[in-house]
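At this stage, I put together one protein's amino acid sequence and its C-alpha cells, which the following lines show:
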Amino acid sequence: MSRSIVRLQPMLFSLGLYLLLGAQPAVSSELEERIDRLEAELQQLREALGKQDGARSDGSGGGDDGTATSLPAQPQAPARTGSLSPIAFAGEARVSYYMGPEPFTSVAPDIAPTITGFQVLHNEIRLDPTQYGVVQQGILPRYRDHSRYRAVGLLVEGYMEIPQTGRHRFIVAPKPAREGGGSPVTNEMIVRLEVGEESVFNLHVSSWRNRDVSRELTAGRHPFRLWVASNSPGYGPAAIDSRLELGVIMPGRAERVPLSRIVFPPDQE
C-alpha cells in the first residue's frame, strides 16, 4: 500500500500543476458562463415579481379563499430634517438636544434645540450628539471644540407612571466627563427633575458619587421634565462625553427601576 502511494505522488503533483497552469482559462470561462446564467435567472425573477405586484395592486390577484387581495402600503421612513421619529411608543419620551458655546444653567436655554423628537430611553443617558441623530460634519471631531460647544444639554419630557402612593427614592448616578490619570479636570453636570409641579431634585455635581433623593409622590400618571447638562471648563474633556444613570426605588420594592420603564411620551395620556 505504501509503494502505491509513493508512485501516485508524482502523478498528483503533475495533475495539480496542470490544473493550476493549463486549466485556469477553462475554469474562468465556465465561471463567467455560470454568472451570466445567474444574472439571467435573477432578471426573470424580477420580472415575475413585478407582474405579481402589479396584479395585486390593481385587485386582479386573489387570496386563498378566492377573494381579491392587495399588498399593504409600506410606511415611509421619516426624513432627518432636525427632528427624530414622529411615532411615539411606551418607554419613550420627547427629547430636545442643545449645544452651545456658553455654560448652561438649571433650565433649558431659550434657543432652538439642535434636534428634537421622540426617543427610546435607555438605562444610561448619554450626551453624545450621535445618540440623537446629530450628524458629524467633516473629518475632524468639531463637537469636541470647546470654543464652539462648551456646553451640551438634554431635555426629556413626558409622563411618569407612579403605580403606588408613597415615598420614592431616586438614585442619580452622574458620570461627568473627566481626564484620566488622576487629573482634577472634570466637567460640571446639572441634573434637574420635576414631576408635576414639584421639583424632585436640582443637582450640580462634578464627581461620580451617586446621589440618593427621596420624595413623596402620589399614584397616577404625572408630567415630568428632566434636564441634564454638561459644562466643560473650556479645556480638557469634552462635554459630550458626560453620561447619567437614573433609577427609582418604589414603595414596597427593593429593586431600582430604570426611568425608561415608567415613562410615556407627552402626547399619549
User: Anything to note?
Assistant: The chain has two domains: 2-57, 92-264. The domain at 92-264 is CATH 2.60.120.260 (Jelly Rolls).
